[in-house]
Design a protein that fits this description.
The chain has 22 helices and 15 strands. With 641 residues, it is α+β, with helices and mostly antiparallel strands. Strand 5 and strand 6 form a beta hairpin. It is elongated, with a radius of gyration of 37 Å.
């Protein structure tokens, strides 16, 4: 039929639909669809024309709603597909759960989303992942079973939603939960169960800081994400069990291979020990070689480092003896006991491996006797040079360099002074003196291998070690504590100075650095960190007191430098928000009153602070340092108030 033959009513309907088709094409808002009708009435068009426009408007709005629904469902399906893809390639459970919570928050358009898991051992539930949360107390909540909205979801295995949490009496309110929810400023909360089979293992939540009604589609969507989260947890548990089974099978295969090659190892150990002696290997080289051959851990212990009954039995019998799950072979020469070789955690030692351990003990005794004289002479020389540097008796740079060069040390490079002390309570003065000698011997050996110096002083040992590429005073202190502790089989605590340069020219710096190292050592002991190593920079604000120089700007920069730089670059108020947050008892709800802003503004700023300072910025230790850094920054910027 031609256009000319269309009825006037049909032509009117076609022309009425035209403006609404244009609005659909450009994705206009719902309010814009009222404009053609209002304009027709304003122009006084016939009632039939206005009615046609009204009908076309309703039809267009239904089409628009359908299009938006399809787009929303497409986005939801895309997010669910991406989550399923993450689950298929599961490597990091936490990363998958974070992605699920982030996508749920984004699609539902909520202020916050979070996931809690049940702890069967403690009989409660705890926060596992949060997205959008800024209140420390809320993030650390642990809920008893059956408490709060989450407890109701876990108890009934059904979704629950509340549009006003504090006015809802369907679930059990507790002071702890309510305080956390109030700190976060939450009002509307939706929770769906995480289920593996019939068992509820946790709850997935979406929440807003304003009143809101969650529709059926949104509840179903969050339920789909919860199903994927439960599947991720179930897959991770299955993967862990599979890996454990594979590890057990691998260990069984290793035992089978070991039994078939025991005779070959006995021949191999003879060749290795002979090679060690010929190329000048040491006691610990022998222990390492035998450890590899016996597929265990072999350690050399000084006299008194192993139960005396076991060592005396091995010495009298001339063979290795079993002591608990260990095997002990005495290292002796003539009538002198030099120590013992101990094979740890190897109760089922066969005769061939037993003879291997005994042969290694004999080689060890020969090496100790041969090296004792040379070692004692070198240790004395190294100790004398370090004593002279500490007491600044020799101030001639040329002579100091010459003495250091004979010991393969370079005093012009960067060095760190380390104060080391044993953390052991001896039964008597003789045992204490023996422990100190072992520490000094181990420190001297370490200094010789690292081209440094060592000396006994103040009941402990002081070392001067070069700072290698990529090393810091902290890493050197920790490595030294570990190596000395392994050598003497006792906990050794090490405090480090800041790096020093050109010691031959400025020998007086060594004594000041040793004092700083002693302060760090004492701080470690007072903090219950015996057996560890650290420098002044590791103690946060305490480092200001321990270091020789008070590096206030360095402390502020390390602690809140990222926030300071961000404010300066962007002109933001993150520092002022942090001050108000701490002054308000870390409550976003009270902080927004102090700053006269919306609680969501506070939440957004604190989220930015969390990204700049790290996830643990609200831990007790970090909070103390951050508040002190804020105070120091304020004083250094504006002067005392």
């Amino acid at each position: 039929m031609s256009r000319d033959h269309l009825s006037s009513a049909e032509r009117s309907a076609d022309s009425a639909e035209a403006p609404f088709l244009e609005l659909l094409a450009r994705g206009a808002t719902a309010d814009a669809y009222e404009q053609p009708v209002l304009l027709a009435r304003a122009e006084g068009l016939p009632d039939g024309r206005v009615a046609a426009l009204e009908q076309a408007k309703l039809l267009a709005l239904r089409v628009r709603t359908e299009i938006e629904g399809r787009r929303r469902r497409e986005a939801e399906l895309s997010a669910l597909f991406e989550t399923a893809h993450d689950l298929a390639g599961l490597r990091d459970l936490d990363a998958v759960l974070r992605a699920i919570v982030q996508r749920a928050r984004s699609l539902l358009g909520t202020d916050i989303a979070y996931l809690s898991l049940n702890d069967a051992a403690r009989g409660d539930t705890y926060m596992r992942v949060t997205e959008g949360s800024v209140a420390a107390r809320f993030q650390q909540l642990r809920l008893g079973m059956g408490e709060g909205l989450g407890g109701l979801v876990a108890q009934t295995a059904r979704p629950y939603v509340t549009d006003d949490y504090f006015k809802d009496d369907r679930f059990q309110h507790t002071r702890t939960i309510d305080a956390g929810v109030q700190d976060e400023g939450l009002v509307a909360i939706l929770g769906v169960p995480l289920m593996i089979g019939p068992q509820v293992i946790g709850v997935l939540f979406a929440a807003d800081r304003r009143a809101r009604v969650f529709d059926r589609e949104q509840i179903a969507l969050l339920g789909s994400f919860a199903a994927l989260a439960a599947a991720a947890i179930d897959s991770a548990n299955a993967l862990t069990e599979t890996r454990s089974a594979l590890d057990r099978l691998g260990r069984a295969n290793e035992i089978i291979r070991d039994r078939s090659a025991v005779i070959e190892r006995a021949s191999d150990v003879h060749d290795r020990l002979a090679e060690l002696v010929l190329r000048g290997g040491g006691v610990h080289d022998v222990a390492a070689a035998v450890s590899e051959v016996l597929d265990g851990t072999v350690e050399f212990t000084e006299p008194g480092g192993t139960p005396s009954m076991a060592v005396e039995a091995a010495r009298a019998d001339g063979h290795a003896v079993r002591h608990g799950d260990d095997w002990v072979a005495a290292v002796a020469a003539g009538g002198e006991l030099l120590g013992a070789l101990v094979l740890r955690g190897h109760p089922g030692l066969d005769p061939v491996d037993q003879r291997t351990l005994e042969r290694a003990a004999m080689v060890t005794s020969l090496l100790l006797l041969a090296r004792r004289s040379a070692s004692e002479a070198e240790q004395r020389v190294r100790g004398e040079l370090l004593d002279d540097l500490l007491d600044t008796r020799d101030r001639d740079p040329g002579l100091l360099r010459e003495r250091a060069a004979r010991l393969h040390a370079d005093l012009d490079g960067p060095h760190v002074v380390l104060a080391a002390r044993l953390d052991v309570v001896a039964a008597d003065a003789g045992q204490e003196a023996g422990a100190r000698r072992r520490l000094w011997s181990a420190a001297s050996h370490l200094a010789a291998t690292r081209h440094g110096l060592a000396a006994a002083r103040d009941g402990g040992t002081v070392l001067l070690l070069p700072l290698g590429p990529g090393d810091t005073a902290t890493t050197l202190a920790r490595r030294t504590a570990k190596e000395l502790g392994t050598a003497v089989q006792e906990a050794v605590t090490v405090g480090a100075s800041a790096p020093l340069d050109r010691l031959a020219t400025y020998p007086e710096a060594v004594a000041a650095a040793y004092t700083e190292g002693q302060r760090c050592l004492e701080a470690l002991c007072l903090l219950g960190r015996a057996g560890d190593g650290a420098a002044a920079e590791d103690f946060g604000f305490l480092g200001l007191l321990l270091a020789g120089d008070r590096d206030i700007s360095g402390f502020v920069g390390r602690t809140i430098g990222g926030v300071v730089d961000y404010d300066e670059r962007r002109g933001t108020d993150l520092l002022r928000t942090l001050d108000a947050y701490f002054a308000s008892g870390m409550s976003p709800a009270r902080t927004k009153d102090a700053l006269h802003v919306h609680v969501n503004t506070v939440a957004q700023r604190l989220e930015r602070v969390g990204r700049l300072l790290g996830e643990d910025w609200q831990s007790p230790a970090r909070i103390l340092e951050i508040q002190l850094a804020l105070r120091l920054h304020r004083l250094s910027s504006h002067g005392p108030r």
